[in-house]
Recover the amino acids of this structure.
């Protein structure tokens, strides 16, 4: 054995020894206890309102999921006039929309919050722990003056069939003068779907996915869960301003049904959602800020030291429906074809699947559908 080989072996052994002595780094971001997460945004729109309850998984947990649903809790909304509204996760209490137990707590009746009133949310879990939010007052929000839709052409390389353009969406708003105003926007789109059931069949090659067509018209609400924009009027008090919101893909020529919600929020809610937004932008790089728990406005009434996550927001809301005619743009897009079953699968007309009503699906066309 020559000296080069001996040196290499000694180097490898030394490296292995050094690695064996190094303990894995544990940042100890959170405790080993799971925490209750309460999420709710109730608005002045007359509709069924929702409260979402989960437990998060503790850091370094062996749990296979990061959220556990919370069933059999008692959820109550109270206002400063003494009115009370109950929320249930029992599907029998939720009229036509059948939801799984836990997580979704829906008001028994449609509720419409009132600008100027103060509301407080109370939660009692199945193990008799009691939680309450801070009282939150509904502040009015101005209307959206105008929705701007601007087409931006994209020229992809000749060998790539990617999107040929996008529609940039922004809003114009006239701020209310002499007040501290904080704004929040989110949005979703609705599309008509052809297939109401997806399923898989095992075979020698593994599994094959199939679909069944809808028995009637069916419309699906596509929610962008991480899409939100915020603004405050510190530098624009009383003036009109423009806020860029989203980009609509130009992947086919169908009309794009977009719903924009503009909310009023208070300063604390603005700070909470701004922290959530900034933390979600972190790319996981070496010098990114360390992830941290973002405390909301809930507390355990018998144990102030317990960490409760989530936020309870009450908002005035202005809803704007925008139907983007993508057939007017040029050049035409590379069409995204709808899914078709394999040619050897025969689906007779009678073999369809009902458009079951749910939080995101309905057999009724939305307002203004074209």
């Amino acid at each position: 054995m020559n000296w080069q080989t001996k040196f290499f072996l000694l180097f490898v052994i030394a490296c292995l020894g050094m690695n064996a002595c190094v303990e894995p780094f544990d940042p100890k971001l959170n405790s080993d206890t799971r925490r209750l997460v309460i999420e709710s945004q109730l608005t002045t729109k007359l509709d069924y309102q929702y409260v979402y309850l989960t437990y998060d998984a503790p850091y370094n947990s062996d749990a296979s999921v990061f959220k556990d649903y919370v069933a059999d809790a008692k959820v109550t909304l109270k206002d400063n006039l003494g009115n009370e509204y109950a929320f249930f996760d029992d599907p029998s209490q939720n009229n036509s929309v059948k939801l799984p137990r836990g997580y979704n707590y829906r008001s028994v009746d449609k509720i419409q919050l009132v600008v100027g009133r103060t509301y407080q949310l109370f939660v009692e879990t199945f193990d008799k722990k009691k939680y309450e939010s801070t009282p939150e007052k509904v502040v009015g929000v101005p209307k959206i003056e105008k929705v701007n839709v601007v087409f931006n052409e994209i020229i992809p390389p000749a060998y790539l069939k990617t999107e040929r353009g996008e529609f940039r969406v922004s809003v114009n708003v006239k701020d209310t003068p002499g007040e501290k105003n904080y704004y929040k926007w989110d949005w979703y789109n609705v599309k008509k779907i052809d297939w109401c059931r997806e399923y898989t069949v095992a075979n020698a090659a593994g599994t094959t996915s199939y679909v069944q067509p809808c028995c009637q018209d069916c419309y699906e609400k596509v929610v962008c869960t991480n899409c939100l924009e915020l603004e405050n009027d510190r530098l624009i008090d009383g003036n009109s301003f423009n806020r860029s919101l989203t980009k609509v893909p130009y992947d086919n020529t169908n009309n794009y049904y977009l719903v924009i919600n503009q909310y009023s929020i208070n300063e604390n809610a603005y700070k909470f959602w701004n922290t959530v937004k900034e933390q979600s932008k972190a790319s996981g790089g070496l010098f990114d800020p360390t992830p941290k728990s973002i405390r909301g406005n809930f507390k355990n009434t018998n144990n102030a030291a317990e960490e409760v996550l989530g936020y309870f927001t009450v908002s005035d809301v202005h809803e704007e429906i925008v139907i983007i005619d993508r057939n007017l743009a040029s050049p035409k897009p590379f069409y995204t074809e709808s899914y078709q079953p394999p040619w050897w699968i025969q689906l007779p007309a009678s073999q369809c699947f009902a458009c079951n009503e749910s939080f995101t699906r309905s057999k009724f066309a939305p307002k203004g559908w074209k």
Remarks:
- Helices lie at 3-21, 267-281.
- The chain has a mean pLDDT of 82.
- The two ends are 82 Å apart (CA to CA).
